[in-house]
Amino acid sequence: MRKATTRWATVVASMMAVAMAAPALAHADDGPAAQISKTAKLSPMRTDVWVKSPSMGGKVKVSVLTPQNSSGPRSTVYLLDGADAGKDVSDWITKGRAGKFFADKNVNVVLPTGGAGSFYTNWTRRDPAIGKPQWETFLTKELPPLVDKKFNGTGRNAVIGLSMGGQSAFALAVRHPNLYTGIASLSGCPTVAGPVNQAYVRTTVAKSGGDATNMWGPFGSPNWVAHDPSSNLDKLRGKNIFLASGSGAVGPLDLTAPADPKDGPPQAVTAAGSALEIGAWRCSLEFAATLRANNIAFTPGFRLIGTHNWVYWERDLPNAWPTISRGL
Length: 328
Prior knowledge:
Blueprint: H1 6-21, E1 25-26, E2 34-41, E3 46-53, E4 58-65, E5 74-80, H2 91-94, H3 98-101, E6 107-112, H4 135-150, E7 153-162, H5 164-175, E8 180-186, H6 195-207, H7 213-216, H8 222-226, E9 240-246, H9 252-256, H10 266-293, E10 299-303, H11 310-324
Parallel strand pairs: 5-6, 5-7, 7-8, 8-9, 9-10
Antiparallel strand pairs: 1-2, 2-3, 3-4, 4-6
């Protein structure tokens, strides 16, 4: 990571001084403020945090990974799960070995829990299965100042998501371009333009029993456009962008990947993972072509082999890091 300039260091120092003087609240002048209600130190590197969130209507649990031997200011990486996001702990911890990868990185890593099928967005109507979460407000307004205050954050952030979370990462970035310096999608479908990509979103939400119409309204409505990075490309200029996906072709790693019996027969799981990755491959390549056509730089991480499986995402994360870390 590059060293902060003197000017930036002065700005950071001023921001931190203000933050240290304030209580552990967020946006108190906008009504009830979010606040940390509980913390649990689970290891030298991991702290679980419960945030009382007005926007989410209750307590939200996030895990925060911190370096063992650093007390100075550090930037923050937000890691978003896919559609099967764990209720109590992020899949990035239990399946993606994020703790091992970030053990020697001088950054905070924030991993929200319980986002299954939500696209980490603000839902416009209450859904019988998903409810009416306001993830965007929580992740972009309420949570960052709390994390920065408690974990010595600098205010510089990046967001990385896999599958569903890959789209969410780009949607959050175009809607809050000043918040993130880097964005990465691993086996995601960043663009939601066109009937095929719309179907990809609807199918993902439906897997959790939800209806995407309750999320952003009818397809083609302003809310879909507002969350489509391909319709808001100027917000991505100058960002550190990484795009990765496999082709869906089955490889040796699929044959040795850990299997959960409750997911079904291994052959069926591999076939489903192949189909999902083919969709992510097509959509990610489409988005990559759009970025190139509009002279927006990005780092490609496309693989000729690979299905929708953690054995590949665990390897994609180190490939994304040189690009994402440039802005931190």
